[in-house]
Inverse folding.
């Protein structure tokens, strides 16, 4: 099976957490799967980068902001790949543009248009885990774009859709999709499964668990998405028809 695993910022906070994620990815390969790992920036890195930019200029150019913010995910991709190497696992990191993730030119909130290269496929076939920096792509002019805050989910689902993956797993700090934020409401109820349509409504209503565009893409391409905890075992929530 071809599986995309996406890790968010809290799942990559420090070396121990990166190791946990890397071990899971490497285990997938041992089980016979091909694995693409999509990473977010570590912890609150992106917030810090936004702040750094605003310390320089109140309203930075959207193009430069994208070039700058994309670095957070690139750092994660490098560290994750080094960790996989430390485990003896073949792996290679790719930026969004090396992976060929083509977007429109809406800097700061770009939409995925397609995949313009077969680089990922080649690296997978060479036995690598392919670690792709989330949240970023390239436009027709060859400039770096970002997909909007929380957009690494969308990278993961887009790659799953465009590569024809069997499953997209989103590893996060909650153990699935709830009817309301379980970090705020102790009486929140978890779904074992939820339809694309209902998930889209939750995401558009402000549920942070999935980026709304990732759900749109999942629905359009019928990608099964599993939302599950990085830290606790359990099947999480299947987002599916
Ligand atoms: N690092 C980006 C953000 O904080 C993208 C993501 O995490 O999905 O919004
Ligand atoms: Mg998120």
């Amino acid at each position: 099976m071809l599986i995309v695993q996406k890790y968010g910022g809290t799942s990559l906070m420090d070396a121990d957490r990166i190791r946990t994620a890397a071990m899971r990815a490497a285990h997938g390969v041992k089980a016979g799967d091909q694995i693409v790992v999509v990473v977010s920036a570590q912890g609150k890195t992106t917030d810090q980068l936004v702040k750094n930019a605003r310390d320089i200029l109140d309203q930075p150019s959207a193009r430069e902001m994208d070039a700058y913010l994309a670095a957070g995910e690139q750092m994660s991709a490098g560290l994750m790949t080094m960790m996989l190497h430390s485990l003896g696992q073949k792996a290679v990191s790719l930026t969004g543009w090396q992976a060929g993730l083509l977007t429109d030119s809406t800097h700061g909130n770009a939409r995925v248009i397609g995949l313009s290269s077969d680089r990922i496929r080649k690296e997978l076939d060479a036995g690598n885990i392919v670690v792709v920096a989330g949240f970023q792509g390239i436009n027709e002019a060859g400039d770096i774009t970002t997909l909007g805050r929380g957009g690494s989910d969308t990278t993961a689902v887009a790659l799953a859709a465009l590569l024809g993956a069997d499953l997209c797993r989103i590893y996060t700090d909650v153990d699935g999709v709830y009817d309301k934020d379980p970090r705020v409401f102790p009486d929140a109820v978890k779904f074992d499964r939820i339809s694309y349509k209902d998930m889209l409504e939750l995401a558009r209503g402000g549920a942070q668990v999935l980026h709304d565009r990732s759900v749109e893409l999942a629905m359009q391409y019928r990608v099964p998405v599993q939302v599950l905890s990085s830290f606790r075992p359990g099947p999480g929530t299947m987002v599916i028809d």
Q: What stands out?
A: DSSP finds eight helices and twelve strands in the chain. The helical segments are 15-30, 45-56, 62-86, 96-99, 119-125, 152-163, 196-204, 212-221. The longest strand covers residues 2-7.
